[in-house]
Amino acid sequence: MLRKVLFPVAGFGTRMLPVTKVVPKELLPILNRPAIEYVVDEALNSGFDSFIFVISYGKEAIIDYFDVDLGLRSFLAERKKESLLDLIKEVESKVKTLSAVRQKIPEGLGHAVLSAERLVGKEPFAVILGDDLIDAEPPCLKQMKELYLELSAQTENHSLIALEEVSLEEVSKYGIVEGERISDNLIKIKRMVEKPSPEEAPSNLAIVGRYIFHPAIFEYLKRIPKKGGEYQLTDAMQLMIEEGYPFYGYIFQGIRLDTGNPKGYFKAILHYASKDPELREILKSFSFEI
Ligand code: UTP
Prior knowledge:
- Helix 3 (70-78) packs antiparallel against helix 4 (82-92), helix 5 (109-115) packs across helix 9 (233-242) and helix 8 (217-223) packs across helix 9.
- The strands form three sheets. A nine-stranded mixed beta sheet has the order 5-4-1-6-11-8-12-10-9, with helices on both faces. A two-stranded antiparallel sheet has the order 2-3. The chain has a two-stranded antiparallel sheet with strand order 7-13.
- The protein is of the alpha/beta class and 290 residues long.
- It has helices at residues 35-44, 61-66, 70-78, 82-92, 109-115, 117-120, 140-152, 217-223, 233-242, 262-274, 277-287, and strands at residues 4-8, 29-30, 33-34, 50-55, 97-102, 125-128, 132-135, 159-165, 175-183, 186-194, 205-213, 247-251, 255-258.
- It has a single domain (4-273), classed as Spore Coat Polysaccharide Biosynthesis Protein SpsA, Chain A (Alpha-Beta Complex).
- The structure holds uridine 5'-triphosphate.
- Uridine 5'-triphosphate (UTP) is lined by residues 8-15, 54, 103, 106-109, 111-112, 129-131, 260.
């Protein structure tokens, strides 16, 4: 059983300030849809049907976006704006089971995941970071879900995380893994290091925003110390590995777009615009001046 997906969206998004002072970075538009909708679509298209959001003060609009706005519906209906009404209904009908929990103080990603313990319960679950878009077919989480289920035939109590090869200059921005290659894109992880220097990094395989966890992660998140004001998810995963929980890393097929910083956000917009024939023409008209 793998049907619950967790979206930790409680961070301050400081790299996108000043706009994130009032607009959650997960709601910043990539064309005419907020970034969060892209990852919600990925989860839906990967067969997940129970959605849990970890929000914080000022980020309620993320869940409102998927809720039914009866006032807006009747306004559009009265004015016979059928196509807009259909558009709104399409968005509002995406997430059938939505739960939310508040992380009162943003004490790191590990702490955000732990906040959802009661809503997740004792079953394996997926985590998607709302600012890490992955354009892939089949969707990245679907690739991972299938692999996770295949692995279940040979192993138990396992977890699976997404990996991406990054350049050596970038390793200090990520959690980096060391492990044994099982196939071209599957690693059995032995060790993880959070934000190592290029000299210390055991590889160039970075942990990116997709995870499928065994529920024991919650017990481990309670045991790790706070570092620099944050509980790191990587520390809990490392402790699980040390105590015998199998962790696998999957080098996914697809293009990852990190919308959590200004350059990555701009790149994500260009990427999706280039896939739309009309917008592509606009992009081409600019290339002359560039
Ligand atoms: P980031 O590392 O991108 O942190 O978190 P952030 O606060 O959102 O952004 P910056 O670094 O200040 O610019 C990765 C994901 O984890 C969530 C974020 O919302 C984001 O989706 N997160 C982070 C939480 O839910 N709670 C936290 O305490 C920290």
